[in-house]
Design brief:
The chain has helices at about 10-45, 45-75, 75-95, 100-130, 130-160, 165-170, 175-185, 200-220, 225-250, 265-290, 300-305, 305-325, 330-345, 355-385, 390-415, 425-455; strands at about 190, 485-490. It is an all-alpha fold.
């Protein structure tokens, strides 16, 4: 039984460690979009290279995040968390020193591996260390501080890009890791979930990541219609089929197929795919639109994108409480429609857009929609499976959101006819942006229809509830852990 109290010095050190570690990954997910135009200019990169700067990280993170959580359970959560922080910092250093776009993309993929190790580990350490009476408050503080990090991320990214330069968006992770690792080794107790059982599904994790990488490449390069693109697309489909086959036939699969026997779980993940595909495409393109077309500086663009995160921080817990009373169907139907309306409002953002009259109204509606739907989405995921599988269900849902985002970043430029130099040509980019927003809005309307027809009106009685009541991330739903009885060591 974990016995660390939140008010104790050790409790404060554990909280500091987990906040620092998770903030590294969270900051990168929110600040890189703001830096993309400067990265492209400095490295003479094409639009495809900028897409890969975002997606290389997402491919490895989404493909390996479930495996990362399992490694912590088996070998020790602190050990895997520390390895993840060191790995992430080393890859960040490689990003910051990258001489060209190809090296940057490779380094971003390596960053994703580190993120897959540290992201599930930060919350798992809180679960494994704190006394049950203090655990909810500790999770709340961890989530709240993480949300603050997500809120300042775009502002900080814009300031760094304009000041020291875009490379410091990545280099900033190195001093954070130099603080985090010694504190973790000295003050955080090691823990695991007990005796090891079964084998790791490394093959499944590799096949999943390879399938995502190949299909993403095919989408990004599809405009060339070359033989290599077709071969890659076919290979990606083969890898995806092999992944499904392996998961059905392994005794200990990373993604147990029977979890989708729950109609509610399948439905809510379909909604997640639609919602976070739209969000991923929206925030990727909007950060570029504000700079390339509207003429905003990186700092102004980063600051402009703050309202949705601030609204999430202020009201996500209240939204979750309201959904407990009304049931999930209503907020999961209304929330996507509000976000769809916001994306249509973004059509007003063009050359010399006024922030107060053109940009802010759309982002306020966007934030309201996100507040309405994100907390009920997570609660519905947890309610749709047995309590013992709540952690797995949340991990699958989190990975689904990341996959949806990377597919959107890969596909939207193709669907809207963006050329390799589009981000250098304001008129061309604006035309494609005006095509992309209705597409994103249509995907959100589909999410609303799925919710209205497939989501239960009332939650299941006695279902597990989310621990992360306050949530600030705009790119993924909160990652929850299941109820565990960890074994503390040291």
């Amino acid at each position: 039984m974990p016995d660390v109290r939140l008010a104790s010095p050790k409790g404060r050190w554990i909280l500091l460690t987990t906040v620092l570690g998770s903030s590294m990954a969270l900051l990168d997910s929110t600040v890189v979009n703001v830096a993309l135009p400067r990265i492209g200019r400095d490295l003479d990169a094409s639009l495809a290279a900028l897409q890969w700067t975002v997606n290389a990280y997402m491919v490895t993170l989404a493909g390996l995040i479930l495996l990362g959580g399992s490694l912590g359970d088996r070998y020790g959560r602190r050990k895997v968390f520390v390895i993840g922080v060191i790995w992430f910092a080393a890859a960040s250093l490689m990003c910051g020193l990258a001489p060209d776009a190809n090296v940057l993309i490779i380094a971003r993929a390596l960053q994703g591996v580190g993120g897959a190790l540290l992201t599930p580990g930060s919350l798992a350490l809180i679960q494994a260390s704190f006394h049950p009476d203090d655990r909810s408050r500790a999770v709340g503080l961890w989530s709240g501080f993480g949300g603050v990090g997500a809120a300042i991320g775009p502002f900080l990214g814009g300031w760094l890009v304009e000041g020291p330069g875009w490379r410091w968006v990545f280099l900033l992770n190195v001093p954070l890791a130099l603080i985090c690792v010694p504190v973790a080794l000295r003050h955080v107790p090691e823990s695991d979930a007990g005796p090891a059982r079964g084998r790791f599904d490394v093959l499944g994790a590799v096949l999943g990541a390879v399938a995502l990488a190949l299909l993403t490449y095919a989408l990004i390069e599809a405009r060339s219609a070359s033989v290599a693109v077709w071969v890659t697309a076919v290979a990606g489909v083969v890898a995806a089929v092999a992944f499904v086959y392996v998961e059905h036939h392994r005794p200990d699969p990373m993604l147990p197929p029977d979890i989708f026997a729950s109609r509610q779980f399948t439905a809510v993940n379909l909604v997640t795919l639609c919602v976070y595909a739209a969000f991923g495409g929206f925030f990727f393109l909007t950060a570029l639109q504000l700079q390339v077309v509207a003429g905003y500086s990186p700092l102004a663009a980063g600051t402009a994108l703050l309202p949705p995160t601030i609204l999430m921080l202020l009201f996500s817990s209240r939204s979750g409480a309201l959904a407990d009373r009304t049931g999930p169907r209503l907020p999961l139907t209304v929330g996507p429609l509000l976000c769809a309306a916001a994306m249509l409002l973004m059509l007003r953002v063009g050359t010399d857009a006024n922030y107060l009259t053109d940009v802010l109204p759309a982002l306020l509606v966007m934030g309201t929609g996100m507040v309405t739907l994100v907390a009920p989405l997570t609660a519905t995921v947890l309610a749709s499976v047995d309590t013992a599988r709540a952690g797995l269900a949340s991990g699958v849902n989190n990975a689904a959101a990341r996959v949806a985002g990377l597919v959107a970043v890969a596909a939207l430029p193709l669907l809207t006819g963006m050329g390799p130099e589009a981000y250098r040509l304001p008129a061309a980019f604006n035309t494609s942006f005006d095509k992309a927003m209705p597409i994103c809005a249509g995907v959100l309307v589909l999410a609303s229809l799925l919710s209205a027809t497939l989501i239960r009106r009332r939650p299941t009685p006695d279902c597990p509830h989310p621990e992360c009541r306050t949530h600030g991330s705009i790119t993924t739903p909160p990652l929850e852990t299941g109820e565990t009885e960890p074994t503390a060591r040291g």
